[in-house]
Amino acid sequence: MPEKGQRTVVVTGGSRGIGRAICLALADAGTHVYFNYFNPADPEGEAAAASETEALLAAANAGASSQSVNVASEDEIKVFIDSIMNESGRIDVWVNNAGITRDSLLVRMKTKAWDDVIDVNLKGTFLCSRAVAKIMMKQREGRIINIASIVGVTGNPGQSNYVASKAGIIGLTKAAAKELAPRNVTVNAVAPGFIETDMTQDLPQNVKDAFMAQIPLGRSGQPEDVAAAVAFLASDAASYLTGQVIHVSGGMYI
Ligand code: NAI
Fold it and tell me: What is d(CA 212, CA 42) in angstroms, rounded to the nearest whole number?
């Protein structure tokens, strides 16, 4: 439960990887961080990772609460947001970070792989944004930050579902930014390049090498690199920025 006057921040997919780094980058004594996670293939492992994130948030003196919530489920998102609003009464920053990949070449892609990725990445971002936009418009204040991807701009073979979801997120960011600006709610996206997380660790070495060869700064990114851009977008310093896509890719996209 947040203390009176604390800033309320929500991060989807905060149990590990980029989401955890975002939670920590937004954490301080004046902030309560809510995050969710979801992994039907390994519920215990994901809950354990979430407990670790909570412990790290507590060590940073921030408030922390987490629960398993599937962003692709309209009902679960409603319950999640209602519970946050009952406790805190407001949402200052919402980060749509939860995402999955189900890679395959277009001609071999199963419809389920398409649906799963679109449901979590794009529909999840839509469901959360729609619900939280209503709250922030009433507050006449708020920040929505969407985690897209460099491939949503450049394309990438073997990821037509994921690329479509991330390109969709960029379009959603721009439309929502125009709609919500009159109520002082900003909507921006961060497009990471090649970041070292569970999502990228199992890629074949030749794919990793091909990515590395395209990075002018000559190294892969860390979750903290992405989190720093999110922290900026959530800060007072970014109050005049909306509808933008900030690439955090070591120059992979220029
Ligand atoms: P990850 O696989 O390490 O972590 C994914 C997180 O999302 C976990 O906390 C997981 O519990 C959560 N999640 C997955 N499905 C969910 C669902 N249905 N509902 C709620 N939570 C769910 O991934 P990583 O690498 O940290 O990626 C985070 C975001 O950054 C994703 O949107 C990803 O597409 C994006 N991204 C990552 C890049 C990379 O190189 N790692 C590059 C570009 C974008």
Answer: 30
